[in-house]
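Sample entry (423 residues):
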Amino acid sequence: MESSFSSGCKPSLLSPWRRFLQWTTSLLILLLPWIQIDGKNLLLLDIPQLRLYLFGQVLRIEELYLVLFFTLAFGLGFLLLTVILGRVWCGWLCPQTTLSDLAEWFARFIGLRMKQNRLHGTLWRKIMLHGVYLLFAFIVAANLLWYFSEPRHFFVQLLALDLHYAVWITLVVIMLTIYLDLAVVRRLMCRDFCPYGRFQVALVDKSTLTLHLPDSELKRCIECGSCVRACPMEIDIRRGFQVECINCGRCLDACRLVMMKRDEPGLIRYSFGLVGAGAKGLLNPRTLLLFLATLILLSVLLIAVLDRPSASLKVSVSHAAAPRLLADAQQGTFFNAWVNNRSQVSAVYRLHARRTDTGGSLFIKGQHQTELAPGENRRLDFIVLTPANEPLEIEFTLIDSAEQVLLKTKAYITPFSKDVRHD
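Predicted structure, serialized as tokens:
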């Protein structure tokens, strides 16, 4: 039977898929801050306005508990992927690996050699390379800031040298950090400093995807050294599992190309677990429990997002003005209300006040009705008239234009002669 690994048939390589994934992820990270839905950024943390734009939703500071749920779900999901896929994240998706790959590729492109994490070549080429590193560092630093400042405004302020001093400091610090990473650290981060590789070692079990050279294939090894030369971490996979391995698959491709000339399959492979348990090894208690916990958190997050009211309301007695004794034995108490439109359309809201003891309506003077754009938050200042010299609990109701009751909250007032207190 003719071998399927004939010299005229190029073996299946992983490098094109890895590069495609790296470029796609990098472009997504770069472009995400530029994408808008109905004039709102897809992902932006607006610190001055204390709001988070998250995939069409606008979350104010009091709703950031949703971000906590998202963070916990993301953390558990990442842990689950680590248990299943091992260090594939490191070799295929990690920004540090992508930056290091890009830095080393450009060094080779202009005629420099990289050996033991050091550059070898002429001085002018090294100077050119460091200039490119500074450009990369600026792009990465600016990209990080775009998640806190709308990119178009960022560039307008940058060209006018009108950025806030805190933004300038952040930009310079991140730029220097990225530049030093590209110019000096590179693969040392993965080899010596990154805690994820050490953390991942503790999670490796019979279900984890691992890149290795099985002992049964060692007898076919021709000691060509192509796997070692292709490894960006400069390790020898023939020595077994090593914490420095980032599972990028370069050694696998190099081995396949060499063995193709011998009409043989490559020696190195991905398999689930060091003992080759296969995909059925995923059905173990630890993986299933992590999957269940992640699913529960994602469900809670989804329910919390879908079940959140379309508006928010906070009411408090104003400390800027003291209560006033009015005619007809009435007391006027100043209040502040904060109304936030969480929906995706403009809405008109109205405040109604009533006594909780008798249910009787109370008269409101001032701002008690407003129209808000999607995601807009506004403070309303008004006075509530109540009988003088009578402690009272007031229930405030937020009503929309369709006369639907959206929210209720309570506040307390004391007689005119005493201090005002509230929730």
